[in-house]
Structure formats: C-alpha cells, structure tokens
Amino acid sequence: MILSPAERSYLYDSLAQSPPIRPDSRSDHQFRPLEAKTAFLPGSNGSARIRLMDGSECIISVKAKVVLASQESSLIECDIDIAGFRDDSNFVSNLKFYLTNLLLHNFPVRYLKLTSRYAFKLFLDCIVVSHSSYPLSLISLTSYLALKTTRLPLLVSDVNDEEIAEQPTFSDDWDNAKYIDDYLKEGETFEPPIFITLGVIGPNLIIDPSTEEEQVLENGLIISFYNNNVITPISNINLATNSNNSNFKGLNRTLITKGIALGNKYCPAIISALNTLIEQDDEEGTIF
Amino acid sequence: MNVSEVISITKPVGLDNDIDSDVEMSDSENQAQDSFKQSIVTPGELVTDDPIWMKGHGTYFLEDRTFSSVAGNISRVNRLLSVIPLKGRYQPETGDHIVGRITEVGNKRWKVDIGTKQDAVLMLGSVNLPGGVLRRKSESDELQMRNFLKEGDLLNAEVQTIFNNGIASLHTRSLKYGKLRNGMFLKVPSSLVIKSKNHSYDLPGNVSIVLGVNGYIWLYKTSTGINSATNTSVTSNTNMFRASVDTTGSYAIGQGSVSITRLEEESSWEIYSDKNDPNISNSVRSNITRYNNVLRAMSFCELGITEQRIIMGYEASLSYSNIGSLIDKESMESICQDIINNEKMRG
C-alpha cells in the first residue's frame, strides 16, 4: 500500500498530536471491533475464528494427538498459513516463530501429560484468510480462543503405567471430554498468552495500528501478556511489511516502559472480553 | 475500567432466518413471463424465452432463451435487453468527477487507479503544466513527469473519454482538479455514490469533500482564502464565486470564471506541491475523522451517499461525544437509521 506524500504527512501529524487523532477516531488504547466464533469445526478438539470489519480473518484449529513424550521435543506445534505468502517466506516464518516460541515458554505443558510415558501433543493450524495490518495480534487472539475452547477426551485407563506398560484408553463419550481449564488446580485459571501490537509515533503509542497507520509509524512494539502481566518477549518491528517505511527510526527507551504500562493496563480488558465471548458463545448460532 | 472502551468482540450475526431461502426456480413458460415483469434478477435466472430481444450486457443466451449473468435490474431500451448489475467495479462515463491514485509513470502518460477493471490513463497533454496554458509541452516536461505526479499521488480529475477498449482517459485541465492535499482518503463501493451535478462540497465543521463517482473519497480541510466570509456556506454552487473572491479579496463582477492570466499565476509549481497546510487545527482533524466514520457507517449499511445525507449523518454523529465508539456495528446502524428517519421527516 502506497500513500501519497501529502497523505503521509497529514496522517503523521494527526497521530503525533496529543492525544493522537487516529483516522477512524479510535482512542490510543482502543482495538478495532472483532467478530468471533468458537468451537465450530467438528473434526478438531478446539477451533476459533476472528474477523475484522475490514475483512481480515483468521481461523485456527487445535488438534490433539497422543504421543510418547520421550520422543517429542515439544508438546505444542504451530503451523501458520497466510494467503498470498509462501510458507518459507520470512514473513510467515517470523510469525510462526513468534507464536510457537510464546506458547512453548508460557503454557502449562505439565497438564498435557497423560501418564509417565504418554502425553497429548497439541497441533495449532492457523489460516489467515485475509489480512491488511500486521496479523500477529489477530492470530494470537484467535489462538487464545481456540486453546480456551479445546476439549481433550477423558482418560479412562490407569495413570500409573511405570510398572505395567499400557496404552492409554479414552472414554468414548465426547460429553466427558474436559477443557484444559478443568485439569488445572483450584485457584489457577488457564489463560493462554497473547500478543498485542503497539505503534510508536512521536511521543505516542497506539494499540492495534491499522494498515494506514502502519505506513507512517516510527517503530512498532510487540508485547506479550500472560498471567496478568506483560512478559518477555518484548520486541520491536517494522510493522509496514509490504512497503518501505521512510519514517522508521530508533526506539526511545522510555517508550518501552510506557508500552509495558499500557499492556498491563489494557490487556486484562482484552482477556476479559475474550472470556465473556467464550461464555456467551453457544453451539447454535451462525458461523458466518 | 470499561472493557468496551478497549475492545468490542461480538458474535457473527447471520442473515435473518425468517427469509425463506427456498425460492421456487422458474421452469415453466408462464412463470418465465412472470419473471420478466419483476425487474430484479439473479445470475442464471431466466429473463425471457422470447428470441426477438437483442442480448445486451449482463445476459447470456442458451437454447433460444436469455438468462441473466449478473444480479441486477433488467433494463429495456427498444429491443435491447440488458441487466444492470447492482454492484461491481466502477464503470467510467465521460464527465464523471473521480478521485484516483497514480500507479505508474509511463511514456507521456500516467496510469491511474480509479477502481475500474483497467487503470485509466492521464496524458501529459491533459494536465495543467506549471507556467500556464499557453505554454507548449516540451521534451523537458516528459523528462520531469515524476516531479509533477509520481506513484502513489492522489488526484481528482474528470473522465475525458472512454477508449473503445474500455480504458478511461482523464484530464485535470481545470483549477478544481489536480493533486489532493490536507486530508485523508477513503474508499466506498462506487454503487453507493449517487451521481449529481457537483461532486465536491463544503461541509459543516470546516471540512470539504471530493466525493468521487468511482467511490474514492477525499476529505480535507476547507481551504480558506483572504476573505473567509463565505466559508460557512454549505452549497458548493458558490465554488466558482469563491475562487474569484479568494485571490482578489473582493468580488469583481463578471469574474465568475477563472481568467487566463489567473490560471497562469495559479499554475505555478504550487499545484504539484506535496506540502500540507501547516495550520490544520485539531478540531478540523477530528471533524475529518468524524466524517470518515459517518461515510464508513453509510457504506456498511449500504446507504446511498449524497451531500444531504453526509450532513445529516454528521449531525447525528454529534450526539456521540466519543467518536471512537462510532466504529461499533450498533452505532453505525443507528447513525444510518437516524439518517433515514431524518430524510422521511423532511419528506
């Protein structure tokens, strides 16, 4: 996407005001409205779909497989497919790395263990049907919904198989399947980690920049959030991936701390909105 | 903290279930007669089985019967039968005031994206060159075409002709056309823009708009001259009048149109400048975003866009103190409902 020099400078000036005047007049901490649906794919353990007003859309399916834990390097594997990009392109492999890395380090993997030898392995398959702005936060919010609604079949065989080797067997009744949340101890809640993107412009930080805004940003921040806290990785990135951004420059340290504060302040609202949606979502209702 | 201030996540809303989806397909002959009476057809629907009709755009012919190939209205001109699509890409017509973006600089011409199937062309000879109309275009102009307009630049222009291969040719040989500055761009489906005599308006709140017939819209700060007495006027019929007032400071009788000498003055390098007005106030900037949201709401609700409706939408949006909430689906629908109600009341 190319902007004319006049558009670019108008947009930059608007966003550098305090408070910033965004093209769709969102406030600096406001996300674009989302439409989401969970648990609609019959063949997978968990699924979710998020759609934005501009037509950006992401679908994630979570499938579980019983594996010998000793033979697997990790119990979560992500695959990302983005329409219009080669699977081995930098763009896709970066996104894949971000998501895999975040989940590997911040996921209660111990609850995926079935017996001393067997474990569930989760496969996240993600399709970005269409996107306009940098799709990481879209993918990560969808993965949150998909993982939250993932149901794993109930183990009926013995948990202790150290002495007698036994293949795990599961209840045939899908109604007995449990959410990952149900495996957790009292007082713990299962809230997968999420990413949010922040745009840096002048003295301001803006949450969830749109495509036009990405074109004039001075820098971009990716912030991850887990267990009510901003966690690492926190990284900076040029969000305008499909054009050269002439405004791009170094990042002021104070803005990183400001970004962390912003994340700590507003991410709980995002998590609670996602949780509310899952509570209200029903089997009925339209997918489209 | 209120969650809705940060993010709104809703469930997808499908079509209303009370619409009966089982439409009877018309097979028999008397039904075919009926379907001809109703003016809206869908792709593959039988329009007529009478072979005397000539087949126009949007139709196809199989076994002596004419079917529609698009969803749209049947139009009959003498014996020519065509279907005009309800939606689709913009089809240029001579005289349309459009907004476009340069995509390519070529041999004595620019390619312009105006939302048509093929990019339009803007010939070097169809623009005002710095130095006035009386100047001939020379080789040096061909060499410095990127200094006038380059890839990504936005301009408003008029469709001059349509070549027989369907490509539109544009011109900017008037002071109301040319490069766009001091504002922001948005797109709506071209089918929503209702053609009228004039497509550039001054709106309340010191904002002006170029409502391109192709659905490309430019919202910008109303340019203020020395004499800004006419600033608040809404109708754009006074554009010409103001153009003559602005530069001279007083209205001279008989100066309704731009004189050649003035055109020369105006046609300096200024007209191709990329610099915005340095004094755009925050209130103008937020008014522009308000109009942007109103237009997006109208495009979301598929409401035809006219000057009157934009103003009514703007007035309806004033009741939202937080403009950011206008991007929610409910607010967009309520804005459009307000516009429709308002229109009904005025009759």
UniProtKB/TrEMBL annotation, chain A:
The organism's place on the tree of life at top rank: Eukaryota
Principal location listed in the UniProt entry: cytoplasm
Location relative to the cell: Cytoplasm; Nucleus, Nucleolus
GO cellular component: cytoplasmic exosome (RNase complex); nuclear exosome (RNase complex); nucleolus
Example of a GO MF term: mRNA 3'-UTR AU-rich region binding
Lineage: Eukaryota, Fungi, Dikarya, Ascomycota, Saccharomycotina
PANTHER family per the UniProt record, alphabetical: EXOSOME COMPLEX COMPONENT RRP42, EXOSOME COMPLEX EXONUCLEASE RIBOSOMAL RNA PROCESSING PROTEIN
Protein family (similarity comment): Belongs to the RNase PH family.
InterPro entries associated with the record: ExoRNase_PH_dom2_sf, Exosome_comp_Rrp42_subfam, PNPase/RNase_PH_dom_sf, Ribosomal_Su5_D2-typ_SF
Biological processes annotated in GO: exonucleolytic trimming to generate mature 3'-end of 5.8S rRNA from tricistronic rRNA transcript (SSU-rRNA, 5.8S rRNA, LSU-rRNA); nuclear mRNA surveillance; nuclear polyadenylation-dependent rRNA catabolic process; rRNA catabolic process; TRAMP-dependent tRNA surveillance pathway; U1 snRNA 3'-end processing; U4 snRNA 3'-end processing; U5 snRNA 3'-end processing
Protein name: Ribosomal RNA-processing protein 42
Alphabetized UniProt keyword annotations: Cytoplasm, Exosome
TrEMBL record, chain B:
Any one biological process term the GO annotation gives: nuclear polyadenylation-dependent rRNA catabolic process
InterPro entries: Exosome_cplx_N_dom, Exosome_RNA_bind1/RRP40/RRP4, KH_dom_type_1, KH_dom_type_1_sf, NA-bd_OB-fold, S1_RRP4
Primary residence: nucleus
A GO MF term: RNA binding
CDD domains, per database record: KH-I_Rrp4_eukar, S1_Rrp4
Entries under Pfam families matching the protein: ECR1_N, KH_6, S1_RRP4
SUPFAM superfamilies registered for this protein in UniProt: Eukaryotic type KH-domain (KH-domain type I), Nucleic acid-binding proteins, Ribosomal L27 protein-like
Cell location: Nucleus
Domain RRP4 S1 residue range list: 89-160
Chain ranges of the Exosome complex component N-terminal domain: 40-77
Positions of the K Homology domain: 183-223
Cellular component terms per the entry's GO annotation: chromatin; cytoplasmic exosome (RNase complex); nuclear exosome (RNase complex); nucleolus
Protein keywords: Exosome, Nucleus, RNA-binding, rRNA processing
Family assignment from sequence similarity: Belongs to the RRP4 family.
Name of the protein: Uncharacterized protein
Organism whose genome encodes this protein: Scheffersomyces stipitis (strain ATCC 58785 / CBS 6054 / NBRC 10063 / NRRL Y-11545) (Yeast)
